Amino acid sequence: MSKPDEPVFPGGALSVGEVARRSGVAVSTLHFYEAKGLIRSLRTEGNQRRYPRGILRRVAVIKVAQRTGIPLASIQAALARLPDGRAPTAEDWAALSRAWRAELDERILRLTQLRDQLDDCIGCGCLSLKACPLRNPRDVLASQGAGPRLLEPEAG
Amino acid sequence: MSKPDEPVFPGGALSVGEVARRSGVAVSTLHFYEAKGLIRSLRTEGNQRRYPRGILRRVAVIKVAQRTGIPLASIQAALARLPDGRAPTAEDWAALSRAWRAELDERILRLTQLRDQLDDCIGCGCLSLKACPLRNPRDVLASQGAGPRLLEPEAG
DNA sequence: GTAGAACCTCAACCAAAGTTGAGGTCAAGC
DNA sequence: GCTTGACCTCAACTTTGGTTGAGGTTCTAC
Fold first, then answer.
1. Which residue in A27, A104, B50, B93 could disulfide with A20, CB within 3.0 to 4.6 Å?
2. What residues of chain B score a pLDDT lower than 50?
3. Whether B85 CB is under 7 Å from strand C
């Protein structure tokens, strides 16, 4: 409360330290995000980063997307599709949110299916049974043709 | 179908290649799991791995746990608590499943909360607002004391 | 009795998402 | 005008969950 205010830069720009403090991400992470193309900065004459106020929203969006389980590379790709010249509008952000909500739905659905299957298995101890859908997709499902699967797609 | 059957080893033991084929994980992954203490093998006189049949269930359990998002180290710890001498019973596995089901519930719950918040935000574009719970935990929530949080705990 | 498949170990490499540290610069207060 | 904190770059390191490759051995089948 009695601490001196943060320095106010021309145009309301924020230093990297301020962005770190206010967004809750480390300075090194902001550097890292910049290297990955997730954020950009202007530089002072002395080569220090300055961010427009919109950076806080952008970082917040990145963190939300990360919490949904989306990898940074995908977040970067999505952010890259935002309008280039002007600041993004509420609708721009909302469109991103809708897309990510769909991915989140997908993840929740898959985890829920897994949970339900696990429930079934708890009752019967069926991880020991050949027929258990959780047990062994290659052994059981693979031999039943290429139809829809109960499980998450395999990583490979 | 016309392929020769897999070799049958004494006691129904399985070679690493068979386990890989039947469980859907790579041979290198089985080596890796063994190095991490998730599975064990007996060795032939020629130093080749042989697994008891129960290995397929064990690997299946590992994969299920991984799908719920549990890291290998935790899976290893959980498996280490299984009875040492005898083969695990259905109830042993069911106990594991119950524990992991609880973790899965937790993950689903957090993702669902996140989704609901995202829903709210889609309507109002509120990632731009100071008050948005998704936006900036440090800026908003942190200043409200150490009470329960709406969001997932921060990684750091 | 030998070809070739399957196996062995060990080390190096990969990707993601950062963190840490060295060595040096910038900026603000006294 | 100097000290101190904030900042800069770049390289190396971390963890998780593996994969890849080199160089060598074992097994199975003809």
1. A27
2. 1-4, 136-156
3. no
- C7 nearest neighbour residue (CA to C1'): B48
Helix axes A27-35, A54-67, angle to 10 degrees: 90
A-B contacts at Cβ under 8 angstroms: 138
In tens, the pLDDT along B35-51 reads 999 999 999 999 999 99
Which two structure tokens, joined as six digits, stand for B106? 């937790």
Rg (CA), chain B: 23
pLDDT at residue B86, as a whole number: 81
Provide residues 36-75 of B with CB closer than 7 Å to any strand C atom: 41, 47-49
Instruction: Give the CA distances from residue A72 to residues A69, A75, A77, B54, B120, in Å, rounded to whole numbers and listed in that order.
Output: 9, 5, 9, 39, 23
SS3 B42: strand
> Please, is B1 exposed, middle or buried when counting C-beta atoms within 10 Å of its C-beta (0-12, 13-18, 19+)?
exposed
